[in-house]
Amino acid sequence: MPRFVPPKFPDGNSLVEPGGHQDGQRDRPPASVPTVRGGSGPQGPKHASRRGKPDKPRRPRLLRRLFAHRSVRVVLVVFVAFVCWVAFSVGQAMTAPGNANTSTRLAEWARDHYLGPVVTFGEWITYQAPKVGGKPTFSLAAPSTPSTPARAGGPSATPKASAGTITPDVPAQLSSPAGTPLPGEGQWRVLASVGGIPAIYGTYLRPDSLHTSYVAGIASMDQRLLTFQLRPGAEDPGPGNWGYAPWLPPGSRTGLLATFNGGFKLDAAGGGFYLNGMTKGILTPGAASLVYHKNGQVAIGEWGRGLGMSSQVLGVRQNLRLIVDHGAVPASVDQNVQTQWGATLGGGYDVWRSGIGITSDGRIIFVYGPALSVRTLADLLQRAGAVEGMQLDINPAWMSYMYYKPSPSAADPTPVNLLPDQLEPADRYYSVNSRDFTAVYAR
Question: Whole-model pTM?
Answer without folding.
Answer: 0.75
